[in-house]
C-alpha cells in the first residue's frame, strides 16, 4: 500500500504525534495533519492485511485555522522526523497535548487538563540544551527521518538551544556526569520541582522516598523541606548517578539499583513506611510491581512524574486498585514542536 494516495477528512489527535483518519474502514495514523482538515494522504506503511496503516498528509485541501507555516525547512513529509507539530501554532499544540492526556485518562478520572507553558524556549524553539546529530561522511551532519534510519543533511536544528544545560535550580548546584540524565528544556527542573513540592507539601520530620532519583533533583529539595528530623532515601538504577545524588544532597541516603528489585529486597532501616513518595520512572512507567511496593508503604501522598500519558494511565488504574486516587494532575510543555508532554500526578489514599 505504500505510495497510494487518498483524499480524507482528518479525525481527532492520537497519542504519538499523529491524527486519526479512515480509508476503506481502516484506521490510518496521519502525520502533518490537524483535526478537521481535508487532506490528501500518502500511505507510508501498511499492507492489505494490516489492522491500521500509517501515512503523511502530502497536500492540504482545507486547512485548519491552527495550521501555520513550519519554521524549520526540514519539517514535513519525508523530511526530519524529530518534530511532530511544526505545522501547528504553539497554543494549539498545547491544546492537542491536553486532548491526548484527557483521552488517555478518560476512563479513570475526570480532571480538567491544561498543558502549561514553561519559560526557557523561544516560541517553541531553541530549548534543547543537549542535541544529537548524525555525522555524515562529508563532514556535515544530519537528522533521521520518522521511523527510519535514513538521514537527511541539515545545517542546524531549530530546537537546539544557544547554550548548554544549567545545573543550578533554586540556587542549588547539581553535579551531573558527562552524558548523564538531566532535563533538556532549561525551564524543566524548576517547573517539575515546583509541581512535586506543591503536590506533596512535605512537612518537617516526614520520611520521603525518591524513586528513579537520578542525581537527586527532587531529593535535595525534599531533604530541605523535611529538615533534620526527617529523612530522604533515593533509589536510582545508574550507580554513577546514585553516587552523585548523595554528593548533591547532603544528609540523604542513596541506594543504587533497579527500583523494583531494591524495593522488593527491602530497604535499609525503618523504611517499611514512608510518608511521601516521588516516582519519576522512564517512559515505560513504574508498572505494577513498583506501584504495589509503593502503596505497601502507606504514603499519605505520591507525586508521579510521567513522560508518557498512556503509561501513566495504566499506573493510575493500578493505584486505584489499591485505594489511591488521582487527586490532581498538571501537564507541562517541556518538548514543544513534538507530541511529548510531561505530567505530574498526585495520588492520595481514597
TrEMBL record:
The lineage of its organism: Bacteria, Bacillati, Actinomycetota, Actinomycetes, Propionibacteriales. Belongs to the class I-like SAM-binding methyltransferase superfamily. RNA M5U methyltransferase family. Signal peptide: none annotated. This is TRAM domain-containing protein. S-adenosyl-L-methionine binds at residues 183, 212, 236, 280. It comes from the Bacteria. The keyword Methyltransferase applies. The keyword Nucleus does not apply. The active site is at 307, 307 (nucleophile). It comes from Nocardioides daeguensis. InterPro entries: MeTrfase_TrmA_AS, MeTrfase_TrmA_CS, TRAM_dom, U5_MeTrfase_fam. Residues 1-59 form the TRAM domain. Pfam families: TRAM, tRNA_U5-meth_tr. Keywords: Methyltransferase, S-adenosyl-L-methionine, Transferase.
Amino acid at each position: 500500500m505504500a505510495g497510494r494516495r487518498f483524499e480524507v477528512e482528518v479525525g481527532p489527535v492520537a497519542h504519538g504525534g499523529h491524527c486519526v483518519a479512515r480509508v476503506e474502514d481502516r484506521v490510518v495514523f496521519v502525520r502533518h495533519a490537524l483535526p478537521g482538515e481535508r487532506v490528501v494522504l500518502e500511505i507510508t506503511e501498511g499492507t492489505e492485511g494490516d489492522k491500521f496503516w500509517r501515512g503523511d498528509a502530502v497536500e492540504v485541501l482545507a486547512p485548519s485555522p491552527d495550521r501555520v507555516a513550519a519554521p524549520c525547512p526540514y519539517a514535513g513529509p519525508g523530511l526530519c522526523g524529530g518534530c511532530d507539530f511544526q505545522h501547528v501554532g504553539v497554543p494549539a499544540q498545547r491544546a492537542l497535548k491536553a486532548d491526548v492526556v484527557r483521552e488517555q485518562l478518560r476512563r479513570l478520572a475526570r480532571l480538567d487538563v491544561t498543558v502549561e507553558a514553561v519559560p526557557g524556549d523561544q516560541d517553541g524553539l531553541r530549548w534543547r540544551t543537549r542535541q544529537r546529530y548524525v555525522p555524515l561522511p562529508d563532514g556535515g551532519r544530519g537528522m533521521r527521518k520518522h521511523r527510519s534510519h535514513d538521514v537527511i543533511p541539515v545545517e542546524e536544528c531549530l530546537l537546539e538551544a544557544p547554550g548548554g544545560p544549567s545545573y543550578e535550580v533554586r540556587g542549588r548546584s547539581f553535579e551531573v556526569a558527562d552524558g548523564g540524565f538531566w532535563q533538556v528544556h532549561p525551564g524543566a527542573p524548576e517547573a517539575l520541582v515546583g509541581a512535586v513540592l506543591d503536590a506533596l507539601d512535605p512537612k518537617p520530620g516526614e520520611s520521603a522516598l525518591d524513586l528513579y532519583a537520578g542525581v537527586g533533583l527532587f531529593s535535595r529539595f525534599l531533604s530541605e523541606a523535611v529538615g533534620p528530623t526527617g529523612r530522604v532515601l533515593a533509589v536510582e538504577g545508574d550507580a554513577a548517578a546514585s553516587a552523585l545524588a548523595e554528593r548533591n544532597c547532603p544528609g540523604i541516603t542513596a541506594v543504587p539499583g533497579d527500583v523494583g528489585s531494591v524495593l522488593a529486597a527491602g530497604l535499609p532501616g525503618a523504611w517499611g513506611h514512608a510518608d511521601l513518595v516521588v516516582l519519576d520512572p522512564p517512559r515505560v512507567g513504574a508498572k505494577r510491581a513498583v506501584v504495589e511496593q509503593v502503596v505497601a508503604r502507606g504514603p499519605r501522598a505520591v507525586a508521579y512524574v510521567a513522560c508518557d500519558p498512556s503509561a501513566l494511565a495504566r499506573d493510575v488504574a493500578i493505584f486505584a486498585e489499591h485505594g489511591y486516587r488521582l487527586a490532581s494532575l498538571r501537564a507541562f510543555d517541556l518538548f514543544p514542536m513534538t507530541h511529548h508532554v510531561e505530567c505530574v500526578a498526585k495520588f492520595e489514599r481514597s
